[in-house]
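Translate sequence into structure tokens.
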Amino acid sequence: MDFDHCMPRKPWELPFMAQPEEVAGLRRIMRMHLQLWGLSALVDAAQLCVTELVTNTITHVGAGTPTTLAVSMNGTHLRIEVHDPCTRELPTLLAVEQDSECGRGITLVDAVADRWGVVLRADSKVTWCELDAEVTAPHGETEPVRFSRAEALLGIYGTAKPPWVNTRTPLSMATAEEAAIEVITDLLHWLRARGCDPDTSLDRAQMRFEAELKAG
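Result follows.
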């Protein structure tokens, strides 16, 4: 699902400890956010950049370093930042031999990203890169988001390309309905686990839904 306007593309940050076992989780989180933002076409490139930037921190700053992944839109470019507390070890673009097994990280980022760089702060540094998102609106807020946001969630519960996107057969719509019911059920469990009354939440959602229908 590649919508120009899906969930509003608000900046987000995720602190973590730079360890090799964290990379897979960061890649999954990046994929999920890009799907919700309607930027599925960037998933592979963004995941590669996250992998290489984080691996660079692990290799040259040290495993266990407190690190933060920050993702935002800079105009119509997706901006990926990795923050770490070391101002001495700076990423460098090196000439790497074809069969070399090390030193490829920043070279790969340079090949995939439209631009990249390093920002030094008083007690930290930010290694960043940007990918052209090929969108007309940076934050995805110029069209109603409820419908596209719902389809993005259904896509996460189902397949990368849900069968109901391009077809409206009874079978495909039944699949979509079942996925929607599963989303609602999970949300009700989530509300109950946090001390909320699921019935009250359902009533409020129904009233809001009906009010929005009346408002056109």
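Note: The beta strands are 12-18, 65-74, 77-84, 115-120, 125-132.
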